[in-house]
Specification:
Elements (H helix, E strand, L loop, with lengths): L18 H6 L4 E5 L2 E6 L3 H9 L2 E5 L5 E5 L3 H8 L12 E3 L2 E2 L5 E3 L2 E6 L2 E5 L5 H11 L5 E3 L4 E6 L3 H9 L11 E6 L2 E6 L8 E6 L5 H11 L5 E4 L3 H6 L35 H10 L3 E8 L12 E5 L2 E12 L4 E9 L8 E5 L4 E7 L8
Parallel strand pairs: 3-15
Antiparallel strand pairs: 1-2, 3-11, 4-9, 4-10, 5-8, 6-7, 8-9, 11-14, 12-13, 13-14, 16-19, 16-21, 17-18, 17-20, 18-19, 20-21
Length: about 375
C-alpha cells in the first residue's frame, strides 16, 4: 500500500475538473503530478486493480496537461521535437511521440494527437515540457503559437468500457480504431474521444474541452455505468507493470534514450526531416546502447510495499544496474519489477540480487511485457 501523510490543499497546486468527483467517490490518497493533484488510490491498489478487471473504471488523468502547437509551422515544429515520423499521422489519429534532448535523452514521453493540419496536442507525462517547446519554437523561430489549452483527460478503462461509451455516446464508438479519435459535443459538453489509455486493458480517453463541465461529465458516465460494475480508480502500478508501460521519472528519465528502454521503433533515422537528437541517436544506434530495460520476477511471498527510490541491482557482489519499480501481480501470482541493467548483463534468465532497504531479494530477468494489449 501507499504510505501517505496529510496533503494540505493550496492554490499553488492545481485541481483537475474532476477533483470534487474523485473526493465524492472515495479518493484516499493523492500525489502531485505536473503541478496538479492526482488521485492514486480509492479502495487500495489491489482492490482498485480487481475492480477494473471486473467492470469499468473512471480515472482522473487531468494531470496529463496538454501542449497545443498551432499555426503555419505546427507540423514542422512538432516533427522537430520528436524522432517519430509524424507525417505518417493523419488527422484524427494519435501516436506516441517522445520528446528528446540533443543527446537523445527523454524530456517527456507524451502522446501526440493531430487535431488538424495546423494543430497538434502533446498529452504530457510529468514535467514542464511546455517551457521546452516554447523555448525551441522561439530559438529556432518557428511560426506557431504554443500554449496550454483548456483540455482535461478522463480515462474509461476495463472490460465494460466499450459498453459504457456506446451507452453514453452512441454506436459509432464500436468503430473507433486504436489510437484514433473523434471530436464530439455531448449535451453541450465539448470533447475529443480517443481509443487509447494508460494500460493494456480495453480503454478510452475523453479529452474534456471545458473545465467547468468536469463533474457533469463524470456524473453522466457514473450514472450510465450503474449496471456495468462501475468504480473509481487511478493509474494503477500493477496494470502498468503487467503491460510493460513506462512512467516517465519513475521508470525512465533524461539519462535514458529510446534504445535503452525498448523504444527504438519510435526513432526514424531515415526520414528526411531533422529532429532534436538525431545525430546522437544515430551514433547510439551504430554503437548500441550501454544499458537496457528488462523485466524481472522476484522470488518469495507477495511484496506489499512500493519502492520510494530506485534499489541497486548486483551480480556477484558488483552493482550492475537498478530496480526502478516493483509490485505483486495477483493474476500472474508473481512479484514483478522493472530493472535497467548494464548491457552485458541484460539478458533473459539472468539471476540478479536486488538490495531493498530491509533485505536482499533474489530475482530472475525476463523479457517485457508480461501481458499484451486486449
Amino acid at each position: 500500500m501507499y504510505k501517505t501523510s496529510t496533503i494540505v490543499l493550496s492554490p499553488r497546486v492545481r485541481k483537475s475538473p474532476y477533483f470534487d468527483s474523485t473526493i465524492k467517490y472515495g479518493a484516499q490518497a493523492f500525489s502531485v503530478y505536473n503541478h496538479m493533484y492526482m488521485p492514486v488510490s480509492f479502495e487500495g491498489t489491489v482492490e482498485d486493480y480487481k475492480n477494473l478487471l471486473d467492470g469499468v473504471q473512471l480515472w482522473d488523468v487531468g494531470v496529463e496537461r496538454q501542449v497545443q502547437i498551432k499555426g503555419p509551422d505546427a507540423e514542422a515544429l512538432s516533427q522537430f521535437l520528436t524522432p517519430r515520423n509524424i507525417k505518417k499521422c493523419s488527422r484524427g489519429q494519435a501516436m506516441y511521440a517522445p520528446l528528446l534532448d540533443f543527446k537523445g535523452g527523454f524530456i517527456n514521453d507524451p502522446v501526440m494527437l493531430k487535431i488538424d493540419e495546423d494543430c497538434y496536442w502533446f498529452s504530457l507525462a510529468d514535467g514542464d515540457a511546455l517551457l521546452w517547446v516554447q523555448a525551441i519554437a522561439a530559438g529556432y523561430k518557428f511560426n506557431a503559437d504554443i500554449h496550454e489549452p483548456d483540455v482535461s483527460p478522463l480515462q474509461v478503462q476495463g472490460p465494460n468500457s466499450t459498453k459504457l461509451m456506446v451507452k453514453v455516446f452512441g454506436d459509432w464508438v464500436n468503430d473507433l480504431g486504436f489510437y484514433r479519435f473523434k471530436e464530439v459535443n455531448h449535451e453541450g459538453i465539448p470533447m475529443v474521444i480517443a481509443r487509447m489509455g494508460y494500460s493494456k486493458e480495453l480503454c478510452y480517453e475523453i479529452f474534456l474541452q471545458d473545465h467547468s463541465k468536469g463533474d457533469e461529465l463524470w456524473e453522466i458516465l457514473w450514472q450510465a455505468g450503474q449496471d456495468l460494475n462501475i468504480s473509481a480508480g487511478s493509474p494503477n502500478i500493477i496494470l502498468r507493470l503487467e503491460g510493460g508501460i513506462l512512467s516517465y521519472l519513475a521508470d525512465i528519465d533524461r539519462t535514458n534514450n529510446p534504445y535503452e528502454v525498448g523504444l527504438d521503433r519510435m526513432v526514424d533515422l531515415d526520414q528526411e526531416d531533422d529532429f532534436i537528437g538525431k545525430e546522437a541517436l544515430r551514433e547510439i544506434s551504430l554503437k548500441g546502447p550501454a544499458k537496457k530495460l528488462m523485466g524481472a520476477e522476484i522470488q518469495g511471498d507477495p511484496i506489499k510495499v512500493f519502492n520510494e527510490e530506485h534499489w541497486p541491482v548486483s551480480i556477484d557482489g558488483k552493482t550492475v544496474g537498478s530496480m526502478n519499480a516493483l509490485v505483486y501481480s495477483p493474476r500472474l501470482d508473481k512479484n514483478i519489477c522493472y530493472t535497467i541493467l548494464n548491457i552485458e548483463h541484460a539478458k533473459s534468465g539472468q539471476e540478479i540480487i536486488i538490495s531493498s532497504p530491509e533485505k536482499e531479494l533474489m530475482a530472475t530477468t525476463v523479457d517485457l511485457p508480461w501481458l499484451v494489449r486486449v
